[in-house]
């Protein structure tokens, strides 16, 4: 029956563990994400700007140098060409121009005498044709501009960056002033592109490293925060379990150290408070113990003398004055009552102080019950339903206290006949199992509102009978005696009428006593073999 | 023993005046001759002078306490001692029995109960049938009420002697603690089994070759004790 419930509980626990794990990691996760975002933004913007500035600087420098060279070459070489050069001349000049320090290809375009367009280019290996020159550039180059104060030349140098087959190129063109040939040059920007690419790679790697570094930093930061939090959690749990001396080690001066300090103060205050309360509790218990102990000394003397008085009363010589006989009887009976009250008080204080010990012996239950009933002259009023031979390991004196209180209570409040039945339940191979003793009376039963309180100390069932004969401790002591055996007493009303007290005792409570009842238990194993 | 065999003489050592007076009154009425002492020291002195048959000893005494008095008496004497303990705290009882007391009563004690205990203890020294039994090197002479081991006389208290006699009467048969309490201590059904255990311990210390691994007085687990002849 309990299996699905257990499973359910197991599931709930597992889910809780997972959830708490998530909660635990989520702060870590959040920190990592935030750190990563910050690092990413900073790294990306910094490397973006650096890349852009570098690119402009590199390209501009290359371009300026190339263009200056080209212009120089145009002036020096193309400028000296005749107005209508031949194909060979153009080709030759272009080759010469291309041989300059800047490695660019040159294309010279002119009209020969017959008005045909002649083209000369440098090198046959990298054919640079007019088709490679964008139309817009050609137009801009060929356009003659009017000369003003701001513009001293009719023709200008124009340039453009193009991409041809995934490779970047710089194309520039100009016209020799005074009807000379138009010259174009093509310079590959591939080395620069490569440089810039490797720069971009470096920047990317740097960004990645920054990201990893920030993640590690975030982890470290999370750990410094979460570790104290985790420790605090453990300490709080220990405190909750009653280990009031739990303290945290305070290190540093940050907010977490503050928290730890606050925790320590709280724990200290709690410990002091609890210690104070238990000391007060202890003091009041000690007072009751001391008081009942102190009461014993005079009571011992009184008891001894009272017996002499009692014997005088019982003596047939009539030596006691009939006038004072009732007084003597009262003293005798009240002394006896006081005795049992102090006895019970002592018993209660022993239980409260935890000094009560079991003195176990192997006894026949039926014999013990019979003796208990017999000793109190209850044989006529009690029906015993118990077979002889049920042996049990228990404290005979404590069993007697329990039985005397239960049966005495039944006789007082329920009325005879009181039925006592003994059953041994589920005896297993090693003599375990329980012993059940039922005490049932034939009275009116116990009112439902009283039932939960029958084992309370000094609880009297009816207010109209404040001075019952008992001490008001009997059932409470019976219950404590059952508990020290590891047993239990329950009170209920029988459906057939009358109250039923059920005493359940384990048949082998020897595990409860630290010292075995056998005086030579340590070496008794090999004996008798 | 006492000068007058019919009236047993007791020594009551109790520091509280009221209790001492009341118990003296009560015990005298029961037919005992009672000498009293208020301290352990006085009690030991009186013991040497008067040679009583039995001592009733309070545990809580000023100066040397009851346990110490008990131990000092046991060094030289085997006369019966009944402890009068104000606390039935179990430690008190155990310590008292270990220091050699034969029985104990818990305050507030009823005079009749104390009287019954006294008479039971005194009966233990009475002689009975006249035969003897031998258990290994141990010889129990019931007529002379002596026990010898390897020919040497053993100093046993009357309680120890009675316990040995009861066990030797049923050799090889296990006796439960409750049975022994009835036979030796004459206690009712609520006898304290620790009396038996403590007395067995003391007896083993005297009769066994190695008290920690007994060969004569065996423990029968879950039952009690048994006297065996060593094979």
Automatic annotation (TrEMBL), chain A:
<dbReference type="InterPro" id="IPR036890">
    <property type="entry name" value="HATPase_C_sf"/>
</dbReference>
<keyword id="KW-0597">Phosphoprotein</keyword>
<feature type="region of interest" description="Disordered">
    <location>
        <begin position="506"/>
        <end position="529"/>
    </location>
</feature>
<keyword id="KW-0812">Transmembrane</keyword>
<keyword id="KW-0418">Kinase</keyword>
<keyword id="KW-0902">Two-component regulatory system</keyword>
<dbReference type="Pfam" id="PF02518">
    <property type="entry name" value="HATPase_c"/>
</dbReference>
<feature type="domain" description="Histidine kinase">
    <location>
        <begin position="290"/>
        <end position="509"/>
    </location>
</feature>
<dbReference type="InterPro" id="IPR003661">
    <property type="entry name" value="HisK_dim/P_dom"/>
</dbReference>
<keyword id="KW-0808">Transferase</keyword>
<dbReference type="GO" id="GO:0005886">
    <property type="term" value="C:plasma membrane"/>
</dbReference>
<feature type="transmembrane region" description="Helical">
    <location>
        <begin position="31"/>
        <end position="53"/>
    </location>
</feature>
<dbReference type="InterPro" id="IPR036097">
    <property type="entry name" value="HisK_dim/P_sf"/>
</dbReference>
<dbReference type="InterPro" id="IPR004358">
    <property type="entry name" value="Sig_transdc_His_kin-like_C"/>
</dbReference>
<dbReference type="Pfam" id="PF00512">
    <property type="entry name" value="HisKA"/>
</dbReference>
<dbReference type="InterPro" id="IPR003660">
    <property type="entry name" value="HAMP_dom"/>
</dbReference>
<protein>
    <recommendedName>
        <fullName>histidine kinase</fullName>
        <ecNumber>2.7.13.3</ecNumber>
    </recommendedName>
</protein>
<dbReference type="InterPro" id="IPR003594">
    <property type="entry name" value="HATPase_dom"/>
</dbReference>
<dbReference type="InterPro" id="IPR005467">
    <property type="entry name" value="His_kinase_dom"/>
</dbReference>
<feature type="domain" description="HAMP">
    <location>
        <begin position="223"/>
        <end position="275"/>
    </location>
</feature>
<dbReference type="Pfam" id="PF00672">
    <property type="entry name" value="HAMP"/>
</dbReference>
<dbReference type="GO" id="GO:0000155">
    <property type="term" value="F:phosphorelay sensor kinase activity"/>
</dbReference>
From TrEMBL, chain B:
<feature type="DNA-binding region" description="OmpR/PhoB-type">
    <location>
        <begin position="130"/>
        <end position="229"/>
    </location>
</feature>
<keyword id="KW-0597">Phosphoprotein</keyword>
<dbReference type="GO" id="GO:0000976">
    <property type="term" value="F:transcription cis-regulatory region binding"/>
</dbReference>
<dbReference type="InterPro" id="IPR001789">
    <property type="entry name" value="Sig_transdc_resp-reg_receiver"/>
</dbReference>
<dbReference type="GO" id="GO:0006355">
    <property type="term" value="P:regulation of DNA-templated transcription"/>
</dbReference>
<feature type="domain" description="OmpR/PhoB-type">
    <location>
        <begin position="130"/>
        <end position="229"/>
    </location>
</feature>
<dbReference type="Pfam" id="PF00072">
    <property type="entry name" value="Response_reg"/>
</dbReference>
<keyword id="KW-0805">Transcription regulation</keyword>
<dbReference type="GO" id="GO:0000156">
    <property type="term" value="F:phosphorelay response regulator activity"/>
</dbReference>
<keyword id="KW-0902">Two-component regulatory system</keyword>
<dbReference type="Pfam" id="PF00486">
    <property type="entry name" value="Trans_reg_C"/>
</dbReference>
<dbReference type="GO" id="GO:0032993">
    <property type="term" value="C:protein-DNA complex"/>
</dbReference>
<dbReference type="InterPro" id="IPR001867">
    <property type="entry name" value="OmpR/PhoB-type_DNA-bd"/>
</dbReference>
<feature type="domain" description="Response regulatory">
    <location>
        <begin position="9"/>
        <end position="122"/>
    </location>
</feature>
<feature type="modified residue" description="4-aspartylphosphate">
    <location>
        <position position="58"/>
    </location>
</feature>
<dbReference type="GO" id="GO:0005829">
    <property type="term" value="C:cytosol"/>
</dbReference>
<dbReference type="InterPro" id="IPR036388">
    <property type="entry name" value="WH-like_DNA-bd_sf"/>
</dbReference>
<protein>
    <submittedName>
        <fullName>Two-component system response regulator AfsQ1</fullName>
    </submittedName>
</protein>
<dbReference type="InterPro" id="IPR039420">
    <property type="entry name" value="WalR-like"/>
</dbReference>
<keyword id="KW-0238">DNA-binding</keyword>
<keyword id="KW-0804">Transcription</keyword>
<dbReference type="InterPro" id="IPR011006">
    <property type="entry name" value="CheY-like_superfamily"/>
</dbReference>
